[in-house]
Design brief:
Blueprint (H helix, E strand, L loop, with lengths): L1 H14 L9 H20 L3
Length: 47
């Protein structure tokens, strides 16, 4: 989750250069929450 967040923030700022459009931490936070949600869904279906 941490790796996805940091990687998406780095890509957002470094590769895409969109940090002026949206605060550069926001895409990292959204990607981390998305990974958490997907992991939570798969954890619930293990039963």
């Amino acid at each position: 989750m941490m790796i996805v967040g940091v990687a998406s923030a780095a890509i957002w700022n470094g590769v895409l250069g969109l940090s002026g459009s949206i605060y550069e931490v926001l895409p990292g936070m959204l990607a981390s929450f998305l990974v958490y949600g997907v992991a939570k869904v798969f954890k619930l279906t293990e039963f």
